[in-house]
Specification:
The protein has about 170 residues and is α+β, with helices and mostly antiparallel strands. The protein has six helices and six strands, in the order E-E-H-H-E-H-E-E-H-H-E-H. Strands 1, 2, 3, 4, 5 and 6 form a six-stranded antiparallel beta sheet that branches. Helix 3 runs antiparallel to helix 5. The longest helix has 23 residues.
Length: about 170
């Protein structure tokens, strides 16, 4: 899986997420990614959105990536945005994001952004999308990444089982 660097949002500054994300971006994945608590944010859980888009055609992947990175440039100005990664598995025609928010309202506002709506309208019928919302009490970027990747890979396992030819006995 290819993964972009952690992109901190404005709410991430209040959480002190540099320490929380340090171990993730260095690739260590060790305990150095433990969270920094709930410093300076409203009470309630952090919301993590994991999206997984499987394109019907390889030819759409460059455009999807280009649009995703363009939208990512707005990240540092999005209210309630803590941080995010973009990810891709080109050989499987899959890509998506793992985004961390201060709450459901912030996520809903992002989903309604004209740029996000345009991407969804352009590619929605060109593949299959699935997503999940996870909740965490504190920012632990390494744990969030592990949980997101486990969810993404769980579908790989189901796909492999479905696509395995059955033997006639």
């Amino acid at each position: 899986m290819l993964r972009s660097r952690w992109c901190r949002g404005p709410a991430g500054d209040r959480l002190g997420d540099r320490a929380a994300a340090r171990g993730v971006d260095s690739g260590s994945g060790s305990g150095s990614g433990s969270g920094s608590g709930r410093l300076g944010r409203p009470s309630g859980p952090l919301i993590v959105s994991v999206t997984d888009f499987t394109s019907d055609a390889y030819r759409d992947l460059p455009g999807i990536a280009r649009r995703g990175f363009a939208l990512r440039r707005r990240w540092p100005q999005l209210d309630g945005a803590v941080g995010m990664w973009l990810w891709a598995m080109p050989s499987a025609r899959r890509c998506g994001s793992v985004s961390v928010w201060t709450g459901r309202r912030a996520l809903a506002e992002f989903v309604r952004l004209p740029e996000h709506v345009a991407i969804m309208n352009q590619y929605r019928r060109r593949g299959t999308i699935r997503s999940v919302i996870l909740e965490y009490e504190s920012l632990d970027a390494a744990r969030i990444r592990r949980d997101a990747e486990a969810w993404l890979m769980s579908d790989d396992h189901r796909r492999a089982v479905r696509e395995t030819p059955r033997r006639m006995t």
